[in-house]
Amino acid sequence: MTDTTDADIARELARLAAQRLIEIRAENPELDGKALKDLGDQGAQAVLAERLATLAPGDAVLSEEAADSDARLGAERVWIIDPLDGTREFSEGRDDWAVHIALQIGDELTLGAVALGGPDEILVSTDAGVDTARGAAESDGPIRIAVSRSRPPELVEHVSASLGAELVPMGSAGVKICSVVRGETDAYVHGGGQYEWDSAAPVAVARAAGLHTSRLDGSDLVYNQPNPYLPDLVVCRPEIRDDVMTAIRAAL
Ligand SMILES: Nc1ncnc2c1ncn2[C@@H]1O[C@H](COP(=O)(O)O)[C@@H](OP(=O)(O)O)[C@H]1O
Ligand SMILES: [Mg+2]
């Protein structure tokens, strides 16, 4: 199977799940809070599980919404998926949520597709143009750091203060990483907890766009590990990497 075909599968999976999520919200106007979160998580997971079984039979899957299995550790091909990232924002009727579809082959995160707030806006790491998207929206003002709107890590306040940066709150790790890809922000800094599915797909897109991606200590983000807990990361424009990493070191 070629990368192109895998990218087509990833895009299609992201599109179908995002479409389903839009339908779920429209069909259940009386629901809010936990009930809508659960319906969204389960509905998107069901679509993805069904389509993966058809489009990529034999591949292993690591999903936020499915039981984990050791089988993925010995598998050559592993789809790392978050059927609904930004669950809280989805349940509040906002559009800062995403569907994450990544493919790990062997030791390598080979591609990612991220649907942003619905089926019409999908970033795929293999698309021409991903690498030039951020150029259009460069800013001369202060560095803009995307940060969780519901639980901003304290560390980011320190990083922001030492860089003289502006914080831009939004939901979903995928939305935040893609905001850097699209030049709407300059960095995403996160610490304190997250899992592989929260970052794999958008990190693949960010790498394809030429952005810096790493753990807060500068080490590589590594996927398909026995424990999928991957609690911190930084994604930023390469031009500001040294300043951002210096500020993070001082804040840790
Ligand atoms: N401290 C933490 N521990 C575990 N997961 C966290 C976390 N902070 C953020 N996340 C996860 O990262 C995603 C983005 O969060 P945020 O919008 O606050 O930045 C959310 O994924 P889900 O919506 O898939 O649960 C959230 O659960
Ligand atoms: Mg998530």
TrEMBL record:
<dbReference type="GO" id="GO:0046872">
    <property type="term" value="F:metal ion binding"/>
</dbReference>
<dbReference type="GO" id="GO:0000103">
    <property type="term" value="P:sulfate assimilation"/>
</dbReference>
<dbReference type="GO" id="GO:0050427">
    <property type="term" value="P:3'-phosphoadenosine 5'-phosphosulfate metabolic process"/>
</dbReference>
<keyword id="KW-0460">Magnesium</keyword>
<feature type="binding site">
    <location>
        <position position="82"/>
    </location>
    <ligand>
        <name>Mg(2+)</name>
    </ligand>
</feature>
<feature type="binding site">
    <location>
        <position position="198"/>
    </location>
    <ligand>
        <name>Mg(2+)</name>
    </ligand>
</feature>
<dbReference type="InterPro" id="IPR020583">
    <property type="entry name" value="Inositol_monoP_metal-BS"/>
</dbReference>
<dbReference type="GO" id="GO:0008441">
    <property type="term" value="F:3'(2'),5'-bisphosphate nucleotidase activity"/>
</dbReference>
<dbReference type="InterPro" id="IPR050725">
    <property type="entry name" value="CysQ/Inositol_MonoPase"/>
</dbReference>
<feature type="binding site">
    <location>
        <position position="64"/>
    </location>
    <ligand>
        <name>Mg(2+)</name>
    </ligand>
</feature>
<feature type="binding site">
    <location>
        <position position="85"/>
    </location>
    <ligand>
        <name>Mg(2+)</name>
    </ligand>
</feature>
<keyword id="KW-0479">Metal-binding</keyword>
<dbReference type="Pfam" id="PF00459">
    <property type="entry name" value="Inositol_P"/>
</dbReference>
<dbReference type="InterPro" id="IPR000760">
    <property type="entry name" value="Inositol_monophosphatase-like"/>
</dbReference>
<protein>
    <recommendedName>
        <fullName>3'(2'),5-bisphosphonucleoside 3'(2')-phosphohydrolase</fullName>
    </recommendedName>
</protein>
<feature type="binding site">
    <location>
        <position position="84"/>
    </location>
    <ligand>
        <name>Mg(2+)</name>
    </ligand>
</feature>
